[in-house]
Amino acid sequence: MTLHENLPSEAEGRFRSDVVLKQDVFSTVERGFFKGPNGEVESVMRRIDLVPWWSYGIARHFLKREARALAIAGRLKIAPELLFQGKRVLFRGWIEALPLHIARPEGDLAYFRSAKRALRALHRKNVTHNDLAKEQNWLRTPQGEAMLTDFQLATCFTGRHALFRLAAYEDLRHLLKHKRRYAPDSLTPVEKRVLAKKSLPTRIWMATGKRVYYWITRGLLNFTDREGGGPRLVNDAPVLMSKLKEHISVRDAAIVAFPDRRTGTGLYAFVETDQRSDEIFVAYLASIPDGVKAPERLQIVEQLPRKADGEIRTDILQLIAMNQIDLIDPLIAGDAEKDLVARIVAGRRNLRDRFAF
Predict the structure, then answer these.
(1) What's the CATH number where 289 sits?
(2) Does the N terminus or the C terminus of the chain have fewer Cβ atoms within 10 A?
(3) For the residues 310-338, what does the mean pLDDT come to?
């Protein structure tokens, strides 16, 4: 997947594309700059002119749903602002924030209070998001506030009838699942009851439709999006990790995904070793099985950043891979980690572009 030079006619003269963030059978998402009445602003373009003919109708439906929801949520300051909507393209503002799986707000009760306020504000306008199980659809700003993104499945209801209440309940339940993961001690008795009680349609979906959905998306379409990483993080990364760890001088390794100008989704490998020549590892990875691509970036580090329990700080490595260096400081645990991360940052391989989700 590469950066496309030809824009939809509706976007000509309005948008300067910088990097492809994501591409699937329903849309291509690119980050760049939108030219508005007050000059250029950082923005994201979702375009459907490149999708296969058989998915165009669904893609168009998703585009309309997102535009309707963003027109409301953007004004509430809980989501990106809708800048422009056409038949085959949509422009929204850019939010300088971290997705939940990178921000990892462990014990951050203030964040989850903000998230609940954002959800209540959305529901007061009779809008439900319907895709909040994905951590990458929850953002955390540098100020610690919660924001929402990716409204393709959102619904704008005309009233607060039973179907709306059901969808709103599921939005809340998915938020509480994230709270249970990152701040379990702060769950209230009422929240625990909500978590324990899935709605009847959800139980039916999980027992029937969800299995068919996975069979189609993961089996037929090979469409996977684990924490925003896509199929390569799911399919290629484990094979590459195994190969790296077979090397006698490798103590440990970590692989994260990042938006890549040439391939769409690239893999960035951080290798902990005393061996200073990465050419050895590039040659070693050449022995990987057919159909598995070597990582686009490979960086040798003296030591990988870790938590107190030894878990690798993939949240920090993710930001280095995306070259979002300015967002790392709030995640640093202490002076020793700060010095270590500074050395990794100094040797990073993504120096040309500034990538972000």
Answers:
(1) 3.30.300.30
(2) N
(3) 86
